[in-house]
Records
---
Amino acid sequence: MFPEEKLLMIPGPVPVKDSILGALASEARSHVDPNFAAYFQQVLSDMGEMMHCDGITFLVAGGGTLGMEMAAANSVSADDKVLVCSNGYFGDRYIDICKRRSRRVEELHAKWGECVTLEQIEEKLAEGGFEVLFMTHIETSTGAMMDLENTVKGIRADYPDLLIVIDGVAAGGAVEVDMRWGIDIYLSCTQKAFGSVPGNMLLWASKRAIERRKNMGEITESYVDFEKWMPVMEDSRRYWVTPAVNNVLALGEAIKIMKEEGYENRYERHKRVAAMLAESLAAIGFEVACAPELRSPTVSVFLYPEGMNIDDNKFRKAADDEGVTLASCLGDFAGKGFRLGHMANYTKHTIVSSVAAIERACIRCGMGIEPGAALAVLQKEMTAV
Ligand SMILES: *Cc1c(COP(=O)(O)O)cnc(C)c1O
């Protein structure tokens, strides 16, 4: 009866603004063109400033996983003792990446929906000999966000030489990050909270991280080697690998949008909207899988109401038919709920329409909800000063 329009409300890729798509559709240009090189440098310097990085910002074509691999390749040798904290699917991916490099990988696991705590990490590190620590800022499979600032500061105070690596793929661009807290490598990518299309990963390396790479000598990889990319990040008229030029232009446009909004405003918006969504969907029986203090501002796992026997595939298909694409859950939450992405450049309209489509999906699935019950809460929240 209605023409189709779909909102992509998954934890990346996200809906992309027209001006960003416009940049993507522009004529390809030479990667060594001085104008392009100047643009590239501006993107890097904006990105470095955003994270307060005292070392080098890398922008390389590839997904977030490439960033994970690049961080590990430039910090872990075969005999290095490494600790990986896993809060779910992507933490487990980091364990796999590290185990391919080192024989001495130790693991800490959180329960699904929780985060490994500072106390657990301190206890493990106290065993001694650890050189690199890997953590996930926001675990996309559970919607749990670790307390990055206090955890990193706490560890840094006791272990001044430990290299601290953070997978920030689902957080960077939506949550405050300050590398001066003691972070050595932070990595993210373009298709999540930065609001651009998939294609580039971003990696920020502190002076300590660059120094560690130098001390490793030659590494096995070439594509992800910091030393190969460093001259290009200083001056992109130099050639190492052809950059994804249009993707860089698109990221530049995405950064312009972020700066116009203001980073602080952007972080605050993500926090408030995540809370609004949780409150409004609670009115129709959906519970967020994480405790309130761990809830991520970018992605939420909403569990189906207990005892209703909702068929997950049917529910998400109904939501899709009603115009909102949701993601399935993983691990312990598989089949028990859906994941809703709420990151980057959504508007009030996007959020209201998403909740409305979820309500219609509930009605279609015979959940017996009051039409407008979630929307009523959302509208109140949105208009409260
Ligand atoms: C999406 C995601 C990744 C992987 O990114 P790809 O671009 O799919 O390689 C890694 N870590 C986290 C936390 C993510 O959310």
---
Amino acid sequence: MSDGRLERWVRPEIRALSAYHVPDASGLIKLDAMENPWPLPGDLRQTIAARLAEVPVNRYPDPQATALGQAIRALWQIPDDVGMLFGNGSDELIQLIAMVLGGPGRTLLSVEPGFVMYRMIATFTQSRYVGVDLRPDFSLDTEAVLAAIRLHEPAVCFLACPNNPTGNLFDADALRAIVEASPGYVVIDEAYTAFTDADHLDWINRHENVLVMRTLSKVGLAGLRLGMLFGRPELIEEINKVRLPYNINVLTQTAARLAVEQFAVLETQTRQLRASRDTMLDALAALPGVEPFPSQANFVLVRVPDAPAWFAGLKAGGILVKNLHGAHPLLAHCLRLTVGAPEENDTLLSALEALARG
Ligand SMILES: *Cc1c(COP(=O)(O)O)cnc(C)c1O
């Protein structure tokens, strides 16, 4: 029983939220969260296990994660004059950005449907959130975004490229127009960089207000929680001030560095996933009543005749996907299908085919 304290003291916008829901996937083929379906190869696992055994867990981790930083810079050829910051997942980086640039009286802007964390974290940080609708084909409504930028003068505009949950890239000219028109900063969220040739790292040099965010989550290391933010060093330094000192634990620092030093192993897997995605797009397009949308990510958004029923049907068949029906009007009867291992994709396609043929 509450004595009224909770109602009095928990901020109303927090009480109005529901906690981020992660469905139970036990016993199911898990195609709901854009994870890499494969474990790390055995020899890399052995190497990591041996090194983790030596890690001094009685000591605080390196607050700057220096060795990991060097490995990441080497991997993506990040010049020393580009600032870099690590987060406990890119979710934490979004939070740090919002703490520094958002807040009461400030606006964070993104597109809808888009990544739900931008809106959630805007609420957590008492920032105003403006979501500009995409067009029905999920392309940017550039005029609408530019008008919203003029009207609201957002401190930050978040754009995921490719976008989640739609899977498409945004037009580069539209993106550039938004960057140039923004009085604040633009975060280009490249969570799916492994699955596309599009790359915006060099935009940091060309535009003073661009930040690029990446993560190891979608390439096979979701459990480690490591996100990276790149941008002009002056701004990265400001954001670094609100980061809690030891946000990247020592086990993650060690394991991620070893995995990054052998990134080719993960790239073999992501290449396979890209090929499977393209195969899956063709197979989905051939199913009656199923409309797949183009994807540059490791998932495919599809519109089906009855998404809640198909979601339930897939789940009854042992497959968990993401039902987006009800999340946004543009996502009516849409399901998001993560690309899995070939045998998982085959099981999914057979189940969808059975549903499509009624
Ligand atoms: C998955 C995802 C992230 C979150 O990544 P973490 O590093 O696991 O926190 C960020 N942005 C987008 C667009 C995503 O889809």
